[in-house]
Here is the input.
Amino acid sequence: MQEQLKKLEEEFNQDCCSISSEEDIQELKVKYLGRKSLLSSLFSQIPNLSNEEKGLWGMNLNKFKLRIASIIEEKARKLKAKDSDFDLTFPSAKVDTGSVHVLSSVNQAICSIFEGLGFVTLEGKEIEDEWHNFTALNFPDDHPSRDSFDTFYLDIQQDKDKGKSLLRCHTSPSQIRIMQQYKPPMAVISPGRVYRPDEVDATHSFMFHQIEGFAVSQNISFADLKGVLLRFAQEFFSPDVNLRFRPHFFPFTEPSAEVDLSCIICGQKKEKEKKCSICKDKGWLEILGCGMIHPNVLSACGIDPKKYKGFAFGMGVERIAMLKYRINDIRLFYENDVRFLNQF
Amino acid sequence: MRFGLNFLKEFLQLECTASELARALTIAGMEVEGLEKVPGDWIFDIEVTTNRYDWLSIVGIAREASAVTGSKLTIKLPEERKKIFLKQKKIIIQDKSDCPYYTGRLIEGVSIGEPSQEIKDKILNCRINSINDAVDITNYCMLKWGNPLHVFDNDKVKGNIYIRRAIRGEKFLGLDDKERILDEKNLVIADEEKVIALAGIMGAKNTEVDQNTKSIFLEAAVFSPLAVRASRRSAGLDTESSYRFERRVSPRNLEFASLEAADLIVKKAGGVYKGMASAGSAPYNRSISIPLNINELNDYLGSQIPAARIKKIITSLGCQVKEGKAGNLIVKTPLERFDLEIKEDIYEEVARIYGFDNIKAKIPCLAGYFEADLLKDKRRSLYCLKDQMRRFFSLYNFKEIITYSMQSKEELEKLKEKDIISIVNPLRSQENALRASLLSGMLQCQRYNLNRNKETFPFFELADIYRRKARGYIEETVLSLGLAGDIADFLFLKRAVEASLKEFGINDYKIQQQEAEALNPGLVISAQDFSLGFLGRVNKDICNSFDIKQDFFFAQLNLEAYIKLRADKNYAAFSPYPEISRDISIIIGRQIKFKDIEKIIRQKGSYLTDLQVVDFYKGKDIAQGCQAFTLRLFYQSQDKTLNSEEVDSCHNGIRLALSQLQGVSLR
Here is the structure.
């Protein structure tokens, strides 16, 4: 027994010198402390010894076991410590990932908020006709109010009685088509591309995105419109923002309002030295147009204005994205420079 | 419109400061865009919306200011002491729909001089130039009442006054010293010999009132808004006068403007008033009665405005209210307000004066709406698919781009696009047509990034494309993928496309080689007669013409087809038993395509579950046109662990079949 134990100890010491990894430690544990190990076979010889030798060798074997266990622990700890010699301050590898365009994610975020309130998202088509783009929306023929809504006309022919073909200049025609197709009550949000012949500069583009929303029922009111928009603003920008509704004029709503957002940059607190670059110290930023749907528009879609009422609103996605992310030039959205796309 | 506060104070006893007035007007809907202090006055600059022509006059603004601030409004109406009929001049109107009502007052024996300082200041503060006392008075009255007036030097007017359409070719030298050739689009004022004014827009130089004028003919009229609009657009003009006529002028205020102007001219320039001639009759000179109900009003607005307050607001705007039972009212609108026609117009007036911000916001319960039909709408499945596609490709490492829908027709033709829709009134020739594929946008984006940055990226775009048809047009939604430069790898693109098909449960599709005009080589993917999309390398010539010297791979997928063919994912049990792989190194000759040997392999491989090309060999010892590669074949059984013999037998069977093919050799 004594010789066997000595031999085991020598073997153990030798094995300990060649430990370099976690696996080596595991192997060591199995070899010396495991069920099928040499040590446990020594333990199993104890019953064959004389009584006095039983006690002595039992004790010696246990001492030995404890000693190699603690040596193995020590070795394991030293190994771990070596691992943490690794310098963690090295920069991480550059990883390029795919991404969604910022306008798409803003669009999606806005639509989600309204869907949460009960709206259904439906997109319309970009090629439209005069009837859906102007006439049904209560724009009188050849009226100055059409001037601020100049449009691109196309050289294709549709239904003769629906007027000339054009690229829609706002998403409102979708509203008309959906109201023609479905009976109230309904609540719909309709995002999409729109086109206006505007000279391109830092804040204007001939192509941009709008989101239109409307709801029609027997009980809708102006107060409901305010509530829905306030909820949107507080969920999209921050719970601390406020909205201000200013009377305005659109041919397709009555009453009509322009909606201002309390400036998210300066929080409406005026600093003595610097003017807020975004709201120019006015404290408010215009973000939406809205109103109660004009009864002529409801009639044009075959909905009885004596029975039903509705509200409608529209917002420019680029403008909202530029406010939220402090993007200062609208052209960045369409240049698609990777250095821009990477930021969102 | 610009005006000075002093002008407004002719009608208004203002109790608050200029800034307080500006704020109150803005909150109620008349947006004060600018407020400036000048010596002796405050200048307001307001936005006048197209429905409120009455804000183009001081009297209209004063009424609004009184309604929003509660300041006292005093309107002193000019009175005609004695109506004198002017017999010498006849007024002949060619078409009553062009000009329903025309009046002219004659003042003889005037002496034209400098205007009074008060009138000069008031019109200068409205940004109207001062000319002489008579002309300034007409502008002063126009600004005050809203009706444009015009004075002619009566000695230069030969005979009667005609309001007619110009004859094509008639010449007109305006007060702006520009000569114009007129046609039937222009409505003119003429005498027996010549055109003396572009009706409602500008007078002619030939009858200009200056310091030598002794006799004045003062015009006040109503012209058709459409006629004035067409005429001024054709002449390339836009004046204070035409601006007002286009938005409709008040026939009632016309009398006041004309009377006051005649009065003031006599007082200032001397002379004797000889009387008025007229033709036609003042149109739409009736007010409307609108019935409404207070409870309905509060329902519409979602407010609880007390009845007394509602009546007060309505009367402060110049309306008359008759009260009935159960909250019913009859509102008689003032003659100046054409924009009040239906009860909703009254609701708006009440709401804005009461204050939009005073109506408490409510959250409606919209989710209770029965919208199952809306959920079934095809547009909804397109929206959902677009969302899922966007997420799929962005997770797959593509970056989304958004590019312009319009390009130049020339460029689109370079890309071999057909059936292009043109824009009739483009801003520039670079954007004069609608694109029939997303290739142009992808090319521009890749080129931009390759030039600017040292790297480019795999991009995708989700947008509509447009094509004309024999009858009408098509607008459809597609998704494009593009890879160019160093990272361009066709198999990567192909794998991405196939992964997207798998993602949406489309497994039964065919891929065929097809050279398209812009892509060669190219592949077309289809299933059940639907074209799912195409992919390939963009033609080198096209790339060069767009300054891209590197490889450029492009794909475009039809989302409508994906919607029709997509299926739900269903879990398929995978084998719990281990997979074993074996490699074969193969060389195929020029005449063999990979799909030919793939067919054989799959036929022979009973336990075969997958095959992958793990390596392309590009050593010098491979003959020209041949492809050398290592193919890894994976074997697995659903019911047991395969042993070496079973795998070998299967694998060798495949090796044998391959080696028997012409043009295939195994290394």
